[in-house]
Amino acid sequence: MLGLNSKLRELEKLGREIRVGLIGCGQMGRGMISQIESMKGMRVVATADLHTTFIQQAYIKAGVNEQSIVITNEIEEAEKAIEQGKVIGTVYSELVTSLPSVDVIVDATGVPNIGAEIAWKAILNKKHIVMLNVEADVTVGPLLKKMADASGVVYTGSAGDEPGAVMELYDFADAIGFEIIALGKGKNNPLDHTANPASAEAEAKAKGASPKMIASFQDGTKTMVEMNAVANATGFLPDVAGMHGPTGTVQDLPGLFQLKEDGGILNKKGIVDYVNGVAPGVFAIISTDKPEVHHEMNYLKMGDGPNYILYRPYHLTSLETPLSVARAYFHQEATIAPWAGLQAETVAVAKVDLEPGSRLDGIGGFTVYGKLLSQSESSSANALPIGLVDANVVVTRPVKKGEIITFDDIEQEKESMIWKLRSLQAQSIEKPAVKTKPVLV
């Protein structure tokens, strides 16, 4: 089988290309446009963002001639421009998801409700959907995957995002028969549950990023959500609520991620976690019951055992997203998807004391942060998933700082798209009995 690079070159030789539609032209989207302009056989032909100047700047910085950028909200004009070899920008995401000439949609909005709606519409239009929106995926991904399967298209997370990078290690280790003890990622800043857009403003400005996005990394929500996606893909669960989050070097991890009776921190095997000190890397802790394999791992300088680490020291976020686009297009395969169903839940925890009438402001805001629980723990607590938190959610009774917010604590003024999909998911999808990826034939 030819590699993706060879397939892309062949496609270009035939005078064709994978036509990508992008929603969201922030930092991730801009980087992806530039990366794809350097590739063979693929192009971002349509981009939607509320600020069309961002779209124009992104294409120009990627090397696209300004005269080849058409800003339009009309589908006929957009289709004509694409057929002429031009690219289009629009303020309407619906235009991009409905364009007949677009093959694959990428959601790079980072907003759970918007991402859920984009994926829903992409699948209805029978287009592959790549999610750079883990928050939406962990909330309604099982339903969206079921829809995509029924429609004959691919629903997938992105290569380069940490869950996708972890999944590559998992697939490798699982395929060659290792026992997988733990899957995880590094966290590159100290955990601060009180972080908010105001406290994160200086760092955000220095990095050219959104203060809410930076706050969501600092308060731990992003880490919880990312490992939630891995849990839903593999069936691995947090060992304790919120995960352990130890500090250590790469060399420390095989010893740390052992059972407590063997000198480690774990109550059980098959867990997801994060580590302070190994960012921006991702890892898998593996073992074996075969003496000859232990001998070979020792010979290969993988350590003394009984546990070993597979470590990838980088993830290139949206710059790797084109690999997921190509895999979906050529092979109809997902990089990462919730094959195991809803196994874990990132629940909303109060950042401050909340009084009746308090309005929740979402991920990376001033009111809540996320904490990863197993789905059974979340269900028993009637906990509110972080992906359902938006400005339509109002607190109806006092919630103390550090307490999990439950459905009993809130009311919804207006039902958003992601709430509708979550309700449909609860009605239509039962927890699967088998927690493994399907065998590809």
Automatic annotation (TrEMBL):
Domain of life: Bacteria
Domain SAF residues, every copy: 345-411
InterPro entries from the UniProt entry: Asp/hSer_DH_NAD-bd (IPR005106), DRL_cat (IPR048423), NAD(P)-bd_dom_sf (IPR036291), SAF (IPR013974)
Name of the protein: NAD(P)H-dependent oxidoreductase
Annotated organism of origin: Ectobacillus funiculus
